[in-house]
Amino acid sequence: MSNVVLYDTTLRDGTQMEGINLTVDDKLLITEKLDEIGIHIIEGGTPTSNPKDIEYFQRVRGLNLKNAQISAFGLTRRTDITPEFDKNLESLLQSEAPIITLVGKSDIRHVTQIIETTEAENLRMIEESIEYLLKHNRRVIFDAEHFFDGYKYDPKYALQTLKIAAEAGAESVDLCDTNGGTLPNELPAIIAAVLPGVKTRIGIHCHNDCDVAVANSLIAFDQGILQIQGAVNGWGERTGNANILSIIANLKTKKHVDCVSDEQLGLLTEISHIIDGIANISPKASQPFVGDSAFAHKGGIHAAAIAKWEDSYQHMTPESVGNHKRVLVSELSGRQNVIAKAEEVGLEIANDQVLVQRVLERVKEQENLGFHYEGADASFELLIRKESANYVPKFHLVNYTVIVGKHQTDTKRFENDEARSEATVKVQVGNKVYFDAADGNGPVNALDGALRKALRDKFPQVDTVQLTDFKVRILEEREGTEAQVRVLIESTDGTNLWRTVGSSANLIEASWIALTDSLEYWLLKWGDADPKQI
Fold it and tell me: How far, in Å, CA of 504 to CA of 387, rounded?
């Protein structure tokens, strides 16, 4: 393995991202996932800031971590007080974390204007705090806050803070681009000025305000920086931190640095999605390496090329980071997109070029009407089957009716009475017609219930299917209530997950199309039909 140290700050700096609020159990689970992918140091939080982090440090001791050690984050001592009387330092020791990461000022303007002390006192704060923690058998990392901005303003003082920290015994001094304003071309000269005078390991902590945090981290490595900080999926305050997953993937696959094992590299996509899921965040599809779109091919020329040579339009093998190639089907597609996408869902149609052409034309017609198959593989598979000559649908719609109404129960509080929906559905299965009705808290809910009831006699297991997500998009907002709408439905039977799409100028009709596709797809794949027959 390499001597690069991967330092993760997801649980501290990462949680400062707007919209993230983790429980202690969440943080412990994330800790275990970070350990799985080979992170060396996990910054668990700030035990001086809230009871949640105090509990975390108490409970994290019970985890059986195989790769990582835990760091507690906090400030150097306050001004004009000795370390043994500083409550912040005492809380850091009480966390029992083996590593303490101290943040101190390296920009003279912050020293004089923010903490309102002298240059000399700030240096004493750094030195005495580190020495005090070392006396208590803690390893210490020094985060030089605002280092790059401080260096540009007063290089002599910024460098002095690093030297003091190193001489006091810090095992690493990490250069922080706290405001995220440093560009890649600026880094080499600054790091070159740091290296000769700092006799300890040097690290980097980049924020992404200029969208170059990962690039800066990699350039810093090239200049001799051996400890790299980041957060999973780029979490962090404002625009986030350097994405630790992208850093790992670049180091391992592009720079051939064995910072993690091949097996750990293969977990990156899974861990990325799991951690976003813990925070109730939708994974970013366009995220490099681990996003759903990272190896997706939409253009017809691209799809045709990768069918001949897979790496023709992708920079690496997606499976190495736990991802996979995807071929998308849209109005931009060619024949090869259709063939490749059909293969993804288990259908071999390459030998039937008439069917391929018919499917391609149908896709383009449907996309013109507002359908979108990139996120609805189930609807795309049904489209292929419906275009084939021998496909027999599991059921046919005869008619449906939906009524939305509000029943007044209290003349003084009518506005608080709940609106309800009623739906009736008549479908034909074989030669028999089934009719039923249901009510619900919305028209789609009522339609769903009525359709299930109508199908239940013939397909009793249909009740295992549940809708897990329902999204509506207005396609032409300027058209107001006459606008075309697209509905995307996600369904599950407890084991399998699939997505279907519908589009119409009528919201209920769009919902009905997506809903019936969902149930028909389930009946086809896991009912009594043979899914290989097309």
Answer: 20
**Superfamily grouping for domain 396-526:** Alpha-isopropylmalate synthase LeuA, regulatory domain (3.30.160.270)
| pLDDT tens track for 502-514 | 888 888 898 989 9
The whole-angstrom separation of Cα 126 and Cα 120 is 10
Distance CA 372, CA 156 (A): 58
Is residue 52 within 8 A of residue 46, CB to CB? The reply is no
CATH 3.30.160.270 in the chain, residue ranges: 396-526
CA distance 21 to 28: 14
What pLDDT score was predicted for residue 253? 95
Token pair 């990461």: residue: 101
Fold of 5-278: TIM Barrel (3.20.20)
Residue 308's pLDDT is: 64
CA distance 156 to 147: 11
Which structure tokens are listed for 391?
A: 């496909």
Question: Would you report the helix, strand and coil content of the chain in percent, each value rounded to 5?
Answer: 45, 20, 35
Write the DSSP symbol of residue 40: S
The reported pLDDT for the residue numbered 532 is 39
C-alpha pair distances (Å), 476 with each of 405, 473, 479: 27, 9, 6
pLDDT band for 366, please (50, 70, 90 cuts).
Answer: confident
Listed in order, the ranges of the chain carrying CATH 3.20.20.70 are 5-278
Residue 238, C-beta contacts closer than 8 angstroms, at least 6 positions apart: 180, 207, 209
Question: Which helix (H) or strand (E) segment is 147 a member of?
Answer: helix 147-153
SS3 label, residue 473: strand
Query: What is the tens place of the pLDDT at every residue in 18-54?
Result: 888 899 999 999 999 999 999 999 999 999 878 889 9
Beta strands in 286-395 (DSSP E): 296-297, 326-327
Neighbours of 40 (CB within 10 A): 19
Residue 337 has pLDDT above 60, yes or no: yes
pLDDT score for 413:
54
Nearest to 142 by CA among 120, 167, 118, 119: 167
Residue 432: Cβ within 10 Å count: 9
Q: In what order do the strands lie in the sheet with 396-406?
A: 396-406, 419-429, 432-440
- Look at 34-48, 62-76, 126-140, 452-466 and tell me which has the smallest mean pLDDT: 452-466
Predicted pLDDT of residue 465: 87
- Predicted TM-score (pTM) of this structure: 0.71
CB atoms within 10 A of CB 403: 12
Looking at 34-171, which runs of residues are DSSP E strands? 41-45, 69-75, 99-105, 139-145
Q: Which runs of E-coded beta strand occur in 66-162?
A: 69-75, 99-105, 139-145
